[in-house]
Amino acid sequence: MKDLNQLVISLQDVFSSRLLSVFIFGSKANATNESLDSNVDLFIIVDNVRSDDLTKLYPYTQRWIAKGNPYPLIMGKDEFYAMSDIYAIEYSDIKWNNQLIYGDDLVQALNINYFDLRLQCERELKNLILKLRGFYLEHGRNKSAIIPAIDTIARTVAVLFRALIRLKNLAPSVYKQDLIEQLGSVVRFDKQFFKKLIGQKEGTYQFNTSEIYEFNEYLISQLTSILKQVSDM
Fold it and tell me: What is the pLDDT of residue 1?
C-alpha cells in the first residue's frame, strides 16, 4: 500500500487538478491494503492526456513496475467513456469490480450497451475458436502442450462466461464453478466439461489421457455451439 500511496502522490504532482480518478481493477480490486504490494492493476483518468505526460510519468511508473505491478492504464475522461463500445467486456468487469483510490467515482457513470457487449462476446468467441484450431494444427493431441495451455484457456473462458451472464441481466458469481451453473441456466452446453476445465486450472481435477486426447475438438465444438446461441440472443 505504501508504493500505491506514493504513486498517487506523484500523480498529483504531475497532473495537479487534471487528475480526476485513480482506481484498482482486476483481481486486486477487493484486496485488503496489506495485499496491495504487487500485481495491482491501476487505471488513471485525467482531464486530458497531453503529449508530455508520459515523459513526466515515466520515472514514477518505472518504480511502480519494478515492484511487480503491470503498467497503469491512463486515459482522458472523454476517451475513457468513448471506449465503452470497443471494450464492453472489459468495462463490464471494471464496473462490476473496482476500488476507488483517489478522486471521483467515474466508473459508475459507464453505460455498457447490450449490443456492444453481445458483439464483443461473439468476436471473442470466434477469435478463441480460431486460436484453438491453430493450436490443434500446431500441437495436435500432444498432452505436454495442452496441459500448460489450459490455464490460459480457463481464464479466457471465465471472462467470456461472465460477459455472457451479463447479457441476461444476471450478476455473475465471483466463483468460477458457479459461473458455469449460472450460464448453464440460460445457455445449453456441457457444464461438467467446463467444470473439469476450471478444476484442472485450480488443481482440483486432472484430465485423464482419454479426455486430453479429445480435448481440443470437444472444446471447439462446445464453443461453436455457445456462439450460435449467443448470435440468436
Answer: 66
pLDDT digits (tens, 9 = 90+) for 118-166: 999 999 999 999 999 999 999 999 999 999 999 999 999 999 999 999 9
- 140 and 66 part of one domain: no
**Total count of domains within the chain:** 2
- Provide the residue range defining the domain that includes 72: 2-109
The pLDDT of residue 207: 95
pLDDT of residue 137: 95
The angle at the Cα of 53, spanning 52 to 59, to the nearest 5 degrees, equals 105
Contacts of 40 (CB under 8 A, 6+ apart): 4, 24, 28, 31, 69, 70
Prediction pTM value: 0.84
Contacts of 124-130 with C-beta under 8 Å, sequence gap 24+, read 124/89, 124/156, 124/160, 124/163, 125/160, 125/223, 125/226, 125/227, 125/230, 126/227, 128/156, 128/157, 128/160, 128/223, 129/220, 129/223, 129/224, 129/227
Residues 6 or more apart from 87 whose CB is under 8 A from it? 120
Amino acid at 28: K
What's the one-letter identity of residue 99?
Q
Residue 75: strand, helix, or coil? strand
